[in-house]
Amino acid sequence: HLDQRIEIKGRDELAELGNAFNHMTQQLLKMDQSRQEFVSNVSHELKTPLSSIKVLSESLLFQEDVPVEMYKEFFKDINSEVDRLTAIINDLLFLVKLDQKEVPLTIKNTNLNTLIEEILKRLHPLANKKNIELIYESFRDVYAEVDEMKLTLAISNLVENGIKYTPEDGIVRVTVDADHQNAFIKVIDTGIGIPEEEQDKIFQRFYRVDKTRDRETGGTGLGLSITYRTVLLHQGSIKVNSKEGEGSEFIVRIPLKQSS
Ligand code: ADP
Questions:
Q1: Which is the most buried residue in 21, 77, 85, 106, by most CB within 10 A?
Q2: Does any ligand 1 atom lie closer than 6 A to the CB of residue 189?
Q3: What pTM, to 2 d.p., does this model score?
Q4: What is the rounded distance in angstroms from the CA atom of residue 72 to the CA atom of residue 74?
Q5: CA gap 229, 231 in Å, rounded
Q6: For the HAMP domain, which residue ranges apply (predicted)?
Q7: Ligand 1: centre distance to CA 126 (Å)
Q8: Which residue's C-alpha comes closest to atom 20 of ligand 1?
Q9: Whole-number mean pLDDT of the chain?
Q10: What's the gap between Cα 116 and its chain centre?
Q11: CA trace torsion 163, 136, 105, 236 (10° rounding)
Q12: pLDDT per residue over 72-105, tens digit each?
């Protein structure tokens, strides 16, 4: 039983061994709990779109003389629920691979300024829809040893969130800078912000500050976990500063050179 503890009094070495054992069982217990939580989260996340599909398809099946427009509308909804399921499963598979370090990084010396500019170019239409100004600021040319595709995905998640969680007419600013050892990428928005007590939880899988609203924004709840894992694989770190109602700032630090 994992919740068993060893009581050892007496010789120092034995007491130390006992402590190490107790520590290890605590760790195993935690891992087991987080695994159970993960499975229950996954099931819940998959069940929600499945229930919608069920309701929509049943109402078409069992209703007589369904007007064509209704068919079209319901199938459109079914189709977007299927897209949602696919997105969740794809993100999950990618995350599991990242966790198992099954996806080796393809490291190349990369111009981060270009990398960010490409991301912003791709996300401009999304920002335009909400009349959000996307600003890019570069303080110097920064080259770093990174996996271009994976870092692109990681930073895109942050910029997409910036746009998602900022009301119309807001600003999302992305800056690139470096010192002798590290590159710094900041994604700053004028959005809804994240309450202080939630700030260290948002990197957990499926964690959302506002369960119903944030699900409606169409995300999978896995974006930040993917970003976090990717940055960690690059031996970097990620930090968030945020104030509710004022905005958020995500700071990514990536070493310029990867030590093997
Ligand atoms: P989601 O797909 O729900 O956006 P993420 O993993 O990307 O999932 O983010 C987790 C949660 O963190 C979001 O649901 C949201 O509550 C919060 N969040 C992330 N980025 C921001 C931001 N820029 N501003 C406010 N809240 C944010």
A1: 85
A2: yes
A3: 0.85
A4: 6
A5: 6
A6: 1-33
A7: 16
A8: 161
A9: 91
A10: 18
A11: -90
A12: 999 999 999 999 999 999 999 998 888 887 778 9
